[in-house]
Design goal:
This protein has about 160 residues and is of the alpha/beta class. It has one domain: Response regulator (Rossmann fold). It contains 5 helices and 8 strands. Helix 2 packs parallel to helix 3. It is globular.
């Protein structure tokens, strides 16, 4: 079972995406800020990290640099999640060690394909957490009505 770390500060978007990924069969660990993402990556050793670039506490870029400079986490592929995936932002994320960048609103089908492509050469790291969601931050999840997250299929979501 593929284990994902989802680092996203928007509670509603994080909850919806984590649930959708879990329904697709991934074990999902969540973090709501940069420091929590670093701790979760070190503790859970996910197969792939999905990292929002605009995280509080420590932005995604700083967290990414820390992950890539840590012997425990430097080999974990990272997909940057960017609200505005400009050429400059994608180039900067790649220079800092991201393996891919996905623009928000996310398209689940494309994100799943990107995850599969990254894992193609990384067999044997699967855990036994079928369809589970683990939160590395104990804060209660409150829906943010200003976010537009959609249900199933390949429709966009924030």
């Amino acid at each position: 079972m593929t284990k994902l770390l989802l680092a996203e500060d928007n509670d509603f978007s994080r909850d919806i995406l984590a649930r959708r990924l879990a329904r697709c069969g991934y074990a999902v660990i969540t973090a709501s800020n940069g420091p929590a993402a670093l701790l979760a990556a070190r503790a859970h050793r996910p197969d792939v990290i999905l990292m929002d670039l605009d995280l509080p506490g420590m932005d995604g870029r700083s967290a990414l640099r820390s992950l890539k400079n840590d012997l425990r986490t430097f080999q974990i592929p990272v997909i940057a999640l960017a609200a505005e995936a400009s050429v400059e932002e994608v180039t900067q994320a790649a220079a800092e060690g991201c393996h891919a960048c996905e623009a928000k609103p996310l398209v689940l089908r494309r994100l799943r394909r990107r995850i599969a492509d990254l894992l193609a050469g990384r067999a044997g790291h699967a855990g036994s957490h079928a369809g589970s969601i683990v939160s590395s931050t104990p804060a209660a999840i409150k829906p943010n009505r200003s976010s537009s997250a959609l249900g199933s299929g390949s429709r966009p979501m924030n």
